[in-house]
Each structure stands twice: as C-alpha cells, then as structure tokens.
C-alpha cells in the first residue's frame, strides 16, 4: 500500500475514534458524576530507503480520563452525596469493586445504600454501608462519617487509584483501577448535593467540528489518490 495512503488511513481511524469519544461526552453532558474522556494520539516517525523523506504516522494510542471537578447541584436528598476534590466512591459490582463519582444512593430493604443500578456503596474498610432500621435523622459529615441522631453508624469511603494512569472506564460513570485503589484521608463530602458532569458542551462541540473537518480533509485526499491511481492504471492498460 502507498505510504501516504497508509498514513492517512491510520490518521482517519484515530479521528473516527476521537469523534465517537467526543459524541459520547456530549451525550453525557447532563449525566451525574460523568467524567469527560479524550483520545491520546502518538506520532511515529519511520525512515525510508534512499533519499526519501521520513514517514510520519499518527494513531490513537489510548484514552484520557479528565478527573477535574464538576459543578455541584444541591438536591436536598438525604442520600445524595458529592465529593469536593479528589477521590471516588467505591461500589461493589459482580465484576469486582469499581469507582464512581455519581453519588446518588437509595437504601435497600435491608438498609444498604445502593446506586440506582443496584450496586452497594462501600465504606472506608470495604464493607457495604448500611442504615439501621428506623433511622430518622441521617447526617453525613464532611469527613464521610455517617450518623443517625448524632450516633456514628458508618464511614463512607473515598478512594483514589494507586496508579492514576490505571483508571479504566468500564461503562456509564463507573471505573476500575487496574493497580487497586486506596482510601483517601482528608476528602470532603457533602450531603444533599450531586456532582454534575465535568463536560463543557461548548468545548466539545468545537472539538467535534475540528475533528470533522480534519476527517473530511483526509477523506478528500484519499479520493484524490484513488482517482490518481485509477488514471495511472488506465493509462498503462492502453
């Protein structure tokens, strides 16, 4: 395959991947606790034979998770929690413990706090957080201490991945930490608040336009190359 065509196809593949990522960001601009994602490109330079110039290829190398703070919305919900600053809630799923910034929880019939999709919230020791039957005045302190009528009943855990580069998006607002996660000290929690998505729609739409234009330029180049090759073949066939 012609080097220029190969390099362009590699770039087009990366741009397509970035377009899907930007579209997913825009789709989740209103999703509680959603973390914006980006695509990381790598450039490869390869020397060619003779006096030919080197070949440069860029391809999508991986995804970047934007961990910046999202806005906080006051809901007044007793079991709506938000983290201000670094850290994630730990939840228990069938695929293992996962991290999330989406802090909307619902007490189950057994009193355990669950995410809307049914996963249990874990405390700082990795045990499910449970609310005693008949609890009437549940309060969350800034340090994560959960109490009822002034009596401590649990410590909501806030965790950080041991390796910040090992954070992987597994779906929705949930992540896994490949190297594990450790409790964070000094985290600030807020009761009656939820964290918004950290996606800036204006920035994402501007990026989508840039990616679309870059993709169209690459597509036009491929079409011109296709016409050129066809013309050469027709000329040689005469």
Automatic annotation (TrEMBL):
Q: Which domain of life is it from?
A: Bacteria
Keywords, sorted A to Z:
Bacterial flagellum, Cell projection, Cilium, Flagellum
Q: Which Pfam families match?
A: Flg_bb_rod (PF00460), Flg_bbr_C (PF06429), LlgE_F_G_D1 (PF22692)
- Residue ranges of every copy of the Flagellar basal body rod protein N-terminal domain listed in the record: 13-35
Q: Which residues form the Flagellar basal-body/hook protein C-terminal domain?
A: 190-234
Q: What is its main location?
A: other
UniProt keyword annotation of Disulfide bond present: no
* The keyword Manganese appears for this protein: no
Subcellular localization, per the record? Bacterial flagellum basal body
Specify the Flagellar hook protein FlgE/F/G-like D1 domain's residue ranges.
82-147
Family statement:
Belongs to the flagella basal body rod proteins family.
Q: How does it assemble?
A: The basal body constitutes a major portion of the flagellar organelle and consists of five rings (E,L,P,S, and M) mounted on a central rod. The rod consists of about 26 subunits of FlgG in the distal portion, and FlgB, FlgC and FlgF are thought to build up the proximal portion of the rod with about 6 subunits each.
Could you identify this protein by its name?
Flagellar basal-body rod protein FlgF
Organism of this sequence: Thioclava nitratireducens
């Amino acid at each position: 395959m012609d080097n220029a065509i190969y390099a362009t196809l590699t770039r087009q593949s990366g741009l397509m991947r970035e377009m899907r990522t930007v579209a997913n960001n825009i789709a989740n601009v209103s999703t509680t606790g959603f973390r914006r994602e980006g695509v990381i490109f790598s450039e490869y330079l390869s020397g060619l034979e003779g006096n030919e110039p080197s070949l440069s290829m860029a391809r999508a190398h991986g995804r970047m998770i934007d961990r910046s703070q999202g806005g906080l919305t006051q809901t007044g919900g007793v079991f709506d929690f938000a983290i201000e600053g670094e850290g994630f809630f730990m939840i228990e799923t069938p695929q293992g413990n996962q991290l999330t910034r989406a802090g909307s929880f619902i007490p189950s019939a057994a009193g355990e706090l669950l995410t809307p999709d049914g996963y249990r919230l874990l405390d700082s020791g990795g045990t499910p957080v449970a609310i005693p039957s008949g609890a009437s005045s549940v309060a969350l302190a800034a340090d994560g201490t959960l109490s009822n009528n002034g009596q401590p009943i649990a410590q909501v855990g806030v965790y950080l991945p041991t390796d910040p580069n090992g954070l992987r998006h597994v779906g929705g607002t949930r992540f896994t930490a490949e190297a594990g996660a450790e409790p964070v000290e000094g985290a600030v929690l807020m009761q009656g608040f939820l964290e918004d998505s950290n996606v800036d729609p204006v920035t994402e739409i501007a990026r989508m336009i840039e990616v679309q234009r870059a993709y169209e330029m690459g597509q036009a180049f491929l079409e011109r190359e296709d016409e050129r090759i066809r013309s050469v073949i027709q000329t040689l066939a005469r």
